[in-house]
Amino acid sequence: MSLRVVWNPPALAYWDRLSTADKLRLERAVYGYAERGEGRLFWDPPYDRLRAGRYLAAVRVDREADELHVLFVQRVAGP
Questions:
Q1: How far apart are CA 45 and CA 57, in angstroms?
Q2: Is-cis flag, bond preceding 9, omega within 30?
Q3: What is the pTM of this model?
Q4: What is the domain count for the chain?
């Protein structure tokens, strides 16, 4: 499983505002899933969600194009 990662503008805008540690955590989660299927993808219509520490990345997997689209990122409530 090797998917090309496509970051949509809302996801990139949010990613730019994160700390360096949070950026790395999010990148590891997204690229780990895209390249090796690592991590856990939660199905939550109309998106799938990929957890990365305090953040969730809303993603869509396009199997025909072998792409993982990161639609947006949001912080999870809690500490």
A1: 13
A2: no
A3: 0.87
A4: 1
Q: How far is CA 50 from CA 7, 13, 28, 46, in A?
A: 14, 18, 11, 13
The CATH number linked to 41 is: 3.30.2310.20
Which structural domain, as residue segments, surrounds residue 30? 4-75
Conformational region of residue 34, where left means phi above 0, alpha means psi within -120 to 50, and beta covers everything else: alpha
C-beta separation of 14 from 55 below 8 A: no
Q: Tell me: the pLDDT tens digits for 16-52?
A: 999 999 999 999 999 999 998 877 777 777 788 898 8
Asked if residue 4 lies in contact with residue 66, where contact means CB atoms within 8 angstroms, the answer is yes
